[in-house]
Design goal:
- The relative contact order is 0.25.
- The two termini are 14 Å apart.
- This protein has one domain (6-188): Jelly Rolls, CATH 2.60.120.
- It is globular and about 55 Å long.
- A hairpin with a 2-residue loop joins strand 2 (14-16) and strand 3.
- It has four helices and twelve strands, in the order βββαβββββββββααα.
- The protein is α+β, with helices and mostly antiparallel strands.
């Protein structure tokens, strides 16, 4: 993707009279693309009705929380937001449609913000995380912040949690010292073998 540290993955889909099959994660393909394997600390499943927006969520760096995200039922607009102070694409976002037809997946490195909007009823998103959920390290930015300008699909009522409705704007989060610094995120992704994740 255009934002450093974010990738959209499109697996080959095998189809016959019985249905379809695809591999949504292969360690060697992931390593060849990203330079590392994804270490799973937690796996989550989120079911949302049409119009629900979850995010923009992010974690303190270190340790950060990389995510690998897939929609297994219905469809969502998955959004990656660069909230890393000092990044060349700071404040920019990129969206990818994830659905149960094309089976695309999105990987985002530690330090990036993540959100999605359910485009169908009972949109089911599964994602694996490099670190476990820790409430004291978790933060949010308001997904409707005009300065971010995320182009959420029109014609759907936006449904937000109370927490996300109260979330600060990107500017407020920055002035409060909540946002990660780009250089810390890059250091966070360097492994002893010199590879970046």
């Amino acid at each position: 993707m255009r934002i450093e540290g974010a990738w959209a993955m499109q697996p080959p889909i095998l189809s016959d009279s019985r249905g379809t099959f695809h591999e949504w994660y292969r360690a060697e393909d992931f390593r060849a693309t990203l330079g590392h394997e994804l270490t799973f600390a937690q796996a989550n499943c989120s079911v949302s009705r049409r119009g629900v927006i979850r995010g923009v969520h992010f974690s303190d760096v270190p340790p950060g929380q990389a995510k690998y995200v897939k929609c297994v039922r219905g469809a969502v607009l998955d959004v990656v937001v660069d909230i890393r102070i000092g990044s060349p694409t700071y404040g920019e976002w990129e969206g990818v449609r994830l659905d149960d037809i094309n089976h695309q997946a999105v990987y985002l490195a530690s330090g990036l913000g993540h959100a999605f909007m359910a485009l169908t009823d009972e949109a089911t998103v599964v994602y694996v995380c490099s670190e476990r959920y820790a409430p004291e390290r978790e933060h949010a930015i308001h997904p409707l912040d005009p300065a971010l300008g995320i182009a959420w699909p029109q014609g759907l009522e936006h449904v937000l949690s109370a927490k996300d409705s109260r979330a600060p704007t990107l500017a407020q989060a920055r002035s409060s010292g909540l946002l990660p610094r780009y250089e810390d995120c890059i250091v966070q992704t360097i492994r002893p073998n010199g590879r970046v994740h």
